[in-house]
Amino acid sequence: MLEIQNLSTHFHINSTKLFQKLTLKAVENVSFTVASNRVVGLVGESGCGKSTLGKTILGLTKSTEGKVLYEDKNLLTLSNREFLPYRKNLQIIFQDPYSSLNPRMTIFEILTEGLLHHKNISSSEARFLSIAMLEKVGMKSDILERYPHEFSGGQRQRIAIARTLILEPKFIVCDEVSSALDVSNQAQVINLLNDFKSSMGLSLLFISHDLKIVSYISDEIAIMYLGKIVEYGTKSEILNSPHHPYTFALFSSVYDIHNRKKKRYVVKGEIPGVVNKPKGCYFHTRCPIAKDICKTVDPPLKNMSDTHKVYCHFPGEIG
Amino acid sequence: MTDLLRLENLSVHLLANHSSIPVLQDINFSVKEGEILAVVGESGCGKSLTSLALTRLLPEKVFSYHSGKILFQNKNVLEFSETELYSLRGGEIAYIFQDPFTSLNPIKKIKDQIIEPYIIHISPNKKEAIEKAESLLAKVGITDIKDRMEAYPGQMSGGILQRISIAMSLMCNPKLLVADEPTSALDVTIQSQLVDLLMEIRRENKMSILFISHDIGLVSSISDRIIIMYAGQIVESGTVDSVMDTPLHPYTTALLGAIPTIGDFSHKRLDSIPGIVPAPIDFPKGCHFHARCTKAMDICKTKNPLITGRESQSVRCFLYEGEQTKNA
Q1: DSSP assignment of A226-255, as one string?
Q2: What is the ipTM for the molecules in this complex?
Q3: N or C terminus of chain B with fewer C-beta within 10 Å?
């Protein structure tokens, strides 16, 4: 339903030297597809380019090269005006519900702003739809005239979800939607998204650094490291047979209540800076099985199965 | 094992607008020598307040230590003079805070801040202090120590800074380390590195750790005993195995059910707790959790349950009040 091909996003930043510009390659050559009614989880550590990728797909950040195909059209070549009809179907929910809701708008205005723009309906119809939507996300319908500051983080995030879903989108980028919330509210938001996925046939790109949440909600999982996707596969492929050493390390570093004494596998070293990335495989500086070839040669794509892809010189040799 | 630290019925009130609002109520726990005690709860439950109250770091213009005792090596911290407190803080009880970017001074070189506790508590000999700092930095896995000592916090990553904070907290060989969400601001691979480091240091120095975190998975993997807090009270405590395997309090059960397990393909719904943690001014009458509890009874709305149970597991809930009389 949404096909991402060789997508790259580079930023040009000032260097400390006069007249010299540096290129920050935030997203490099990323390809994957989001099928309809599927959840693709995107995981990685901070600064690896997860959010930039999410925004680039929706054209909110300008891409450097690559294509995003939706209904056989490349979204990235569309002008703002041409993109407009697609916005209704392609939505985003942000991490921090404290800054993503305009504090000077009432809940009614927040919920209906997009609706009145995209659909030719009257204000009373919009009110009717808002009330129905609020009930679906488990909020009372008498809050329409209130302001965001009157609500807690979990409630605000549900309002943000309602604002997005009222447009009946097909695809939503969920950018760390549960990270700012406490465990109990986090579960509410995840359940809600899961319910809407089934009832509305939604597709989600679920960006998060929380591996437990991602592996709960996702059908496919993509692992990102320093701007590149290093492994991609179905949930069971990634969880049961990770082939990239980084994937292995990430999931091994999760602390699990039900498996408290498990032996964990810890990678050494810090995450390198995104401006001066290492040569060859980006992970070689921290990889326990790195050999000489990893220091110089970019790892090629290797297909483990039709759905399972790994970028590594020695896939599956860890574990 | 003897108790290094024991809190007896500690209650702390917040003074505001001529009224006094309880923010911590009847806190009872002990940290034994060499053990790791975890304090878990959602934001606003009083975890950090408890940790700061231990050394009376809460400003006494705003907070009052209403009742109870804080016994550190059998001496009541609430009766300490300013000088005694001064030698306790950073000396015998050291802290590591959540965010290394704000807990270190941005305009002081690492060298100058890391030796400060040593100069104050142990000896004014600067050369000795620097030697000690360098050996600790090596132990926490910092490379290029000479350069790092001359650098400022803004020049380093969060993982490195948190390693430096850990080294700094160890400068005076503390008996108790209070770690308040020490890895929550860091990436998972870095978190694993630091947790392993803390465990190694604890083994070598035989110190006790009070580990405060909202991450139940993390603390249950490393701690000996665990305390679950809700709205200013301890609702359940006990050994990690008993609390995790047979949680008693409805809040603990709900909290554990809200966390997905990796590798669980059953697609069962996560438990969620309706409502939010109340602010101290809105702490309800009766059991603090009754408004969100699925098992609330009439008595829960009016009376606050007492802690009942044994050393290995105790709980503050009316569902188990009967069992206490049975056991007694």
Answers
A1: TTEEEEEEEHHHHHH---SHHHHHHHHT--
A2: 0.83
A3: C
Write the pLDDT tens digit of every residue in A243-264: 999 999 999 888 888 888 877 8
User: Does B113 reside within a domain?
Assistant: no
**In-domain check, residue B152:** no
Domain span including residue B199: 3-92+172-327
Q: Is residue A304 part of a domain?
A: yes
Find the domain containing A268 and state its range.
239-319
Could you tell me if residue A314 is inside a domain?
yes
Residue A152: closest CA among A132, A136, A138: A138
| A187 → closest Cβ in B159, B216, B270 | B270
- Residues A231 and A42: their CA atoms lie apart, in Å, by 10
CATH number at residue B276: 3.40.50.300
CB–CB of B165/B137 below 8 Å? no
Pairwise CB contact (< 8 Å): B277 & A257: no
Please determine, for residue B326, whether its predicted confidence score (pLDDT) is greater than 60.
Answer: no
Residue range B1-15: mean pLDDT, rounded: 92
What residue has token string 């009967």? B322
Q: Check if B200 contacts A (Cβ < 8 Å).
A: no
**Mean pLDDT throughout A8-23?**
83
Q: Is residue B137 part of a domain?
A: no
Is A250 within a domain?
Answer: yes
A177-214 pLDDT, tens digit each: 988 888 888 888 899 999 999 999 999 999 998 899 99
Residue A68 corresponds to which amino acid? V
Distance to chain B for A76, nearest Cα, Å? 32
Maximum average pLDDT range among A104-113, B139-148, B316-325: A104-113
